[in-house]
Amino acid sequence: MVDKIVKCFLIVIACAFALLMLGLPLAAVATYALREGYGVFIAAITDPYALSALRLTLLTTVISVSVNTVFGLFAAWALTRFSFKGRSLLTTVMDIPFAVSPVIAGLVFILVFGRIGWAAPVLSFLNLKIVFALPGIVLATIFVTFPFVSRELIPVLNARGVAEEEAAALMGASGWKIFFRITLPHIKWALMYGVILCSARALGEFGAVSVVSGHLRGKTNTLPLHVEVLFGEFHLTAAFAVSSILMLIAILTLILKTVVEVKGKKEGASAIVELKGKNEGANAIVELNGIKEGSSV
Amino acid sequence: MSDHVRLEGINKTFGGFKASDGVSFSIKEGDLAGLLGPSGSGKTTILRMIAGLERPDSGDIYIADKRVNDIPAGKRGIGFVFQNYALFRYMTVGDNIAFGLEIQKKSKAFIKERVERLTKITGLDGLLSRFPEELSGGQKQRVAFARAIAPEPRLLLLDEPFAAIDAKVRKELRTWLRNTISELGITCVFVTHDQEEAVEVADNIIVTNRGKVEQSGPPSAVYQNPATPFAAEFIGQSEVITEYERLRGFPKISGFQSAVIRPEFIEIRKVGREERPNASQSGVAENIYFRGDRLEIDLLIAGMRVTAKYSMDAESLSPGETVSVVVNRLLLLGEKTVTAQENSLLNDANPIYI
Amino acid sequence: MKKQSKPARIIIAALAAAIMLSSISGCGQTSASAGQSPKAPVEITNVSYDPTRELYEAYNKVFQAYWKAEADQDVTIVQSHGGSGKQARSVLEGNEADVVTLALEYDIAELEKGGLIEPGWVNEFEKNSAPYTSTIVFLVRKDNPKNIEDWDDIVVPGIEVITPDPKTSGGARWNFLAAWAFALKLYSGDEAQTTQFLKDLYTNVSVLDSGARGSTTTFVENGKGDVLLAWENEAFLSLKEHPGEFEIVTPSVSILAQPSVAIVDEVAKKRGTEEIAKAYLQHLYSDEAQKLAGENYYRPSNTAILQEFSSTFDLSLELVEIDKDFGGWEAATAKFFADDAIFDQIYEQ
Amino acid sequence: MGAFGKRGKARVIPGFGLSMGITVSMVSLIVIVPMLSILVILSGMSLADIWKAATERKVLAAYWVSLSASFIAAVVNSVFGVILAWCLVRYKFPGRRLLDGFIELPFALPTAVAGIALTTLCLPDGWIGRLFTGFGISISYTRIGITVALIFIGIPFVVRSVQPVLEKLGPECEEAAQMLGASKTRTFFKVIFPEIMPAALTGFGLAFARGLGEYGSVIFIAGNIPYKTQIVPLLIMSKLEQFNYGDAAAIALVMILFSFFILFAINLAQSKISKAEKG
Fold it and tell me: pLDDT tens across C204-254, in order?
């Protein structure tokens, strides 16, 4: 009885908190986006500046996520398959973007590639433009989302150990063969999970991009920056309309993430069943399930 | 002595899975009882219901003649040793053992003394300030045991107590556990899927299958006179044969479609060395395995392949050799009954129905 | 070994492609506008401050038509808006603007210091390179519920004032200086009392946005505060967007705000857009553009056209001037807005 | 990992050179070199100037605003995060999947969108703000508003750190405590809490660090009043806009040191967790 009350109480608290902090902002965005009718909504999201911002945002996301995925795979491989001096230092350095304010992230790129930055003479000699153009936005986004993929992969690779890879290597398999045949199947869900998180963050990055963007309308305004622009133009409804597009993308990402998670967990669970089956007979699972179901009643 | 634990008509389902199906049995005070059955037979569920970790759907559980269905687990005065010990990782060995005593609000001095005494009994001296992850499997087992008996329960439950321990330590722990429990004089129920373990440790075993109690009694009785076809097949090194009438001395008895044969039922002799030629028939020793104290033989007899033993002291056999075989006994299996059938050519004794 | 290198090449190629793609599009930006042929379309970038969004949206169309007729060339104008200081910073750091149209002469002077703009730019165009002016007024809620008439009404406790941060916003500096001018007159030149007046004023400030537009949004859209210290044009725009919700109150003393324009010489030279940039800014002084400024609630610098808008603007308002009354931006910045200067002091408890 | 960690052991698995090469060059290009530029800027200043810039009273106040708001937000998130994780792992209730899926919303939702949505909600006549106006409490443009935004940003961290630990924990330890007569409360605080503590700490640290640096969602809701509601990232932006790169870099350096300290603490907590998991 007391248990039931505690359970209900906790669930109510959890749901109320989630509803307040997660549900309400979503509802607010949706309500405000549509408060002046569909016409205004459609006009806002089909505005050429909005569309070009969307294009820029998508392009930035694709580039930075691809770079981070490739990097994440190599980094995770290097960090989990080999032991070398300074490995923990490297891990810590890779985590820096996680702990650094996006504003500082933007600032450092300005300090390197900006007109006053120390790389400026080289860039102007090469007639290359980094900050206040696409490369700068991409770089800032890569920085902010840098550790996402590798952070998801490293624990999984660590947990699997190196026995399988070593066995394959002893049989003479090449590095690529080992990776694609042995390693990738184990980490594919974690990889997808990391890629999704990385994309979500890349799509929505504001602070760092805001510093390096220059806010050129139709050129270097990403969608989140465009929201700010609209917000400042008395176009509150339009700002929320564009926000709602970003929100939809966010929700889609979350759904995708959940699907990946569930699929990944299922495969993980069946692996556990195999393991258990070998040790104690497959029926042990039935008892295990029984216990779990029993205790949650 | 009176019954300490009594279960009456217990039913329990998990989803669609019937874990307990009309389970009734009792355990005498001071008994060491083993719940024996294959995995998934519902033995752990029974143990957890006695402990109060699960509630039966119907039926009554009595401990010391008091119905305990509605008494929460912590108030039943039961010690429980979990299969994976469930030691508290963030407490030292000493804190683990003292946990139950602290809850009973015993004095510091009392707790200290009791913990020290328990560490002596369990041979954990010097390990009190260690954390569980710094212990070996056997040591963890002892800590779990000490923790469970620290509050002086009158009933101790153990879930697969030796499953996670390697074979060599297991033997030693079994003997130790048996002696310690009998010294403490408490009633004890343990769950196992290992019949050797059950037979060796328990005063009484309760054989379970598919949520039902098949048979209970002292190990020797269950072994020699199994009450149900399942008990007959499950206990011992049992093999089921269908055409038992092809063995000499075993006419077909209607209602008994098959029989259980165990190695100790079969007597093998070299050809020409038969003691009772009238009951003998020939067989082939196909493979011979060395088992340390004896030889184990894959025997082909009347077209059936069975396992037999052969003494190391007897004249040696070679693989493929034709031998003379006498089958002394069979356990004939009926629909729901079992009967021990002696070889009719050996004496005139009538079959004994159990 | 040969087999191994194939996937390696693919990955390296992908990486390289990603990097190339990003750098190429970076180059593209500069080279597209470098074309010298008069017929080839040209693109110029105007980095401006917050409240001019609507003005330049309108003016760009006018100029496109003008340039098409004049030089038979299509021109695209890329706009960027933000806090004046922030915008100047981005240009200084490499945001390639052909022209800047900022809130403060001071911000453009920073670009001059940074070597982007040649000295003497102030006199490159008429009227100190300020084609339109504005001033600072109060925006209050409908029917003026707190009876705010002048600067001394907004320093009394209980009034909630919205103004941007003078550290980052050009408009905010005009606000600050206008208030200073009023108080200095009130206390007959006693700076200690004037500073106290400003301190009381900023005690009443509840939100200090980083840009003028941010403050307007806070006051107008988010309903925060009793009075907004605003650019005159920003205040009129709010009236237009939300008719019947607000009123404009003109204080007894305000300041002549001269937003400046300039060609960013370094960029324009590099891109070969000097001519069109000059024309773009020069055309701001044309009658057509001056009227447009008036329609967008900026005071046209052309006095004849200003008179046409006499029904809109309170032309009797006493206006102090930055050069005359404060000794120019350099001096004013050092005295009021530098670190540890008066503005920082009034926030020290 | 430890199994092959001994130096001098032959590397059986190929790809060391390639993967290390790419990793190190990417880390240098994207992280190390840009971060070093802060030091490059600072190297042009005297120590006294750096010290003065980083410890100006206004700056100290901004540290305090950022630290206190992030700390409170992280504490709130730790409490609710543990409750959320607990409910998601231990209970079955309608909408659990949905709730589980939406925990990462603050991650996926662009911070600018979150910022304007929260600001709108917390205005005196907004859906949330309205409830508090009656008590004379305003949320938008106050420290409460900043804290609210940081709570939103930090939700996923504690939940996602604690959840796997709870899932792995299994019911045995609780049952063991229960058998020994411990009450539910005692079981939670003596048995479960120590188990999830390191994970909760990790989540707390991550949320704290994230909150310190958060910009996008906070700028809309923060009042930016010096000494009261000015957060450090906004101050850095403000310094930049005054063309004061040195001061901005000095303040940035202090922030990075704060973050490093937090990261270090997280790693300590994590190594404690993995040590415990080995057992």
Answer: 998 898 888 888 888 988 888 999 999 898 899 889 888 899 999 999 999
| Structural domain total, chain C | 2
CB–CB contact D104 A161 (8 Å): no
Give the residue numbers spanning the domain of C196: 136-256+317-348
Which tens digit of pLDDT belongs to each residue from B150-165? 988 989 999 988 877 7
**Model-level ipTM above the cut of 0.85:** no
SS3 of B195-248: the string is HHHHHHHCCEEEEEECCEEEEEECHHHHHHCCCCHHHHHHCCCCEEECCHHHCC
Give the integer Cα–Cα distance in Å for A68 and C175.
47
pTM reported for the whole predicted model: 0.79
In a shared domain, residues A12 and A114 = no
The CATH number linked to A59 is 1.10.3720.10
Residue C9 lies in a domain: no
Nearest CA of chain D to the CA of A159: how many Å? 9
CA-nearest residue to D186 within chain B is B103
In terms of domains, do A89 and A114 share one? yes
Q: Which of residues 197-226 of D touch B (CB under 8 A)?
A: 197
Residues A27 and A50 in one domain: no
Tell whether C62 and C94 lie within a shared domain.
Answer: yes
**Is C252 in the same domain as C267?**
no
> Structural domain of residue A175, as residue ranges?
37-296
**How is domain D46-278 classified at the CATH fold level?**
MetI-like fold (1.10.3720)
Chains within contact range of chain C (3+ C-beta pairs < 8 Å): A, D
Cβ pair C339:D247 closer than 8 A? yes
Optimal mutation site among A56, A131, A216, A229, interface C, most CBs of chain C within 10 A: A216
Contact predicate D199/D165, CB 8 Å: yes
Whether C31 is covered by a domain: the verdict is no
For chain A, what is the domain count? 2
Q: A290 and B53 in contact by Cβ < 8 A?
A: no
- What are the tokens at C42? 């040209």
